[in-house]
Sequence to fold (251 residues):
Amino acid sequence: MQTVNKQAIAQAFGRAAQSYNQHAGLQRLCGEELASYATRRQGQKVLDAGCGPGWFSQHWRAAGNHVTALDLSAEMLVQAQALHTADCYQPGDIEALPFSDASFDLCWSNLAVQWCSDLTLALTELYRVTSPGGQVLFSTLSADSLHELSAAWQPLDLPAPVNRFLPFDAIAHAGQHLPLTLMQQTLTVGFPDVLSALRSLKGIGATHLHQGRRGGLLSRRHLQQLEQHWPRDRRGYLLSYHLVYGVMHRE
Fold:
């Protein structure tokens, strides 16, 4: 278990509320894969837990479902509401969902639970508010995601701006008391330059560091060093995400 500053996380994502959708290609690819595990597509009460600006809230609503969008960030909910992505908008924390038991047919959470302090509690809460016969679908990041970022930062003698993610075994352990099935996938995204790669992280709000920030802004020399050491191929400067998809059928 890691202790996380929920207010600071909400603020980081709030600052990205306006820019999130233009940088959220990975979230969409991941969400499309996650949606392939859904047993039903329409006529459900759906919770989008950690909805962000509501891209997948809109997806589920357009498919003919009644959608409740929940997020820790008030600014993200304002953006989701401005885009009319859901039927209801609820501020809240996945680790303490403000709903009664068996409230939803589908609890959906795309790349949000990695920001929780206690994954076991988060998964238990998602399962609790799912009705019998319903489904929980979630995705998260696992250890060694963004390893290119860590590798590029090493020669700078600065701490890499990346959080540690749980190993796959720890994710499995967190759901050992639940009817949880896990799948894995690695997605690698290429960027034309280092700044584009860094902006992709900032643009989705994934810049909150649990251990805090040390050091100031990057200098031009630092950027040149990053360019020298950042792994790249014909796709450009690379960022790899080790994705884990979780499926639970509510008994």
In short: Strands lie at 45-49, 66-71, 88-91, 104-110, 130-141, 180-191, 232-233, 236-249. The radius of gyration is 18 Å. Residues 16-23, 203-215 have pLDDT under 50 and may be disordered. The longest strand covers residues 236-249.
